[in-house]
């Protein structure tokens, strides 16, 4: 559905994209994670046929962006990170304009536009001028605009940026709905935990290079070689610490700052070994109330992967 | 061709331009300026003269004055209306979205030009009642009015095309505007000045030269003068030894400028997607 082959973009001596190889299957929601200036928007601009690569190429639905940009445009819905709207248009006129731009006849647009406005929760604003809409509403309107021609692929560059928490939640719900509709989505976002919730796969890009790619679970597992475990006890903390100190795969045992009955430690064993450790502790009569692994979210994944990367 | 002329961008441009209050103000001040000059001319020629009569000769002079003022207004307004049509979209961050639609670059560029020209045409047509004053007093043949309006149309399209070109090539509207005004100024004041200076130099020595021919053939004011007083351009043409009338050369040159400007604009609107180095 989306494939980039050694995609490279250079601006003079600066390399914005360095041999990017991506493969995103149909119906996948792909989160594209990276710091500012990592190359996310450059990738999206090339996929949207707005920027020519220096070398390499990309395919959308099998169409080469460098050779068949017109065909690519018919198959993508693009939402840039920063965009403007025609303020003097009413919401419904705005969508009619883009619908007409895609060659959709008026009678079809008349049926389609109310559905799209309903999808993005803007039905009540259809007769409002675009300039009176809030930032979140404009974002949703832009998303509706990108769906007007029912594209198979949606390229969404920071769709939740600049939105308040409520607007973010609304945007996230709409994106989930699009996922249910079977669209292929490539989304970049700074709101990493939110991406984790709805993405099937993520790619981490730094300084124009893809440094990790795969399912959220796989990438998280890779990082979980060093798990952090929280154990809450009803009593005998010293006995528990002494027991853990004898375990070879346990390290960095500390007491919780706020909860004095909780111990935190690092563990490098497998899931099975972890189960054995818990069983052994119980058999030793250590009074365990709870035993849980600290959850790693996408934020941690990103920070771990990009540790030591020079962002300058 | 129909899809090039009747398309969403043209509809949008016309709707947005005519919907805004600025559009109304533009027409109002245009007619106000022209009307002030026409009425002022009549007052000066009737109230402050002993005869208190407005003769066909004076009517003809008024027509000439109105025509020059109208041409000056067109030359003043066209760069302002066209030099932001693409760069303005870029600055408002609406261009990228527009370029991801399947609309062709040709359709976008022509629509932008035609919508600007249609606004100028509205101004021009709305000024026709002022010209009716001239016909009331006589002294001007209707063909002269038609040829003058044809000249306006050609100037609008050519300067408009240059405005669209600079708007496409230059990212900032302000710089695109300055460049378009600069070119318009050169095509009028610049070439006018050169025609007079070079013409005087050579004609004084009674020698033949082609330079004034080339500077005159791009100057719309000289072409406008030639419709009232053809002697000057005939003399320039005679001394150049070139067989083609200056007016014909003017229309051919402006047509070529228009075609070239629009062609470059269409080619440069979207990036050439082909990777410029080795392919994987």
Walkthrough of the structure:
Chain A: GO terms for molecular function: ATP binding; ATP hydrolysis activity. The complex is a heterodimer of chains A (312) and B (280). Chain A has 11 helices and 14 strands. Chain A folds into 2 domains: 2-217, Rossmann fold, CATH 3.40.50.300; 225-295, Alpha-Beta Plaits, CATH 3.30.70.100. The longest helix of chain A is centred in the middle third of the chain and has 16 residues, at 165-180. Chain A has 312 residues and is of the alpha/beta class. Chain A has a 6-stranded mixed beta sheet with strand order 6-7-8-3-9-10, sandwiched between helices. In chain A, helix 3 crosses helix 4. Chain B has one domain (55-269). In chain B, helix 4 (56-82) packs antiparallel against helix 7. Classes of the chains: A alpha/beta (312), B mainly alpha (280). Chain A binds chain B through residues 5-6, 8, 45, 48-57, 65-67, 69-70, 73-74, 76, 78, 80, 82-86, 88-89, 93, 97-98, 100-103, 142, 145, and chain B through 7-9, 11-12, 15-16, 19-20, 92-94, 96-103, 270-280.
Short description:
The complex is a heterodimer of chains A (312) and B (280). Chain A has 312 residues and is of the alpha/beta class. Helix content of chain A is 37%, strand content 28%.
Shape descriptor of chain A: elongated
Count of individual beta strands of chain B? 0
What does the average pLDDT of chain A come to?
86
Based on the coordinates given, report the CATH architecture of the largest domain in chain A: 3-Layer(aba) Sandwich
Most extensive interface: A-B, 40 and 31 residues
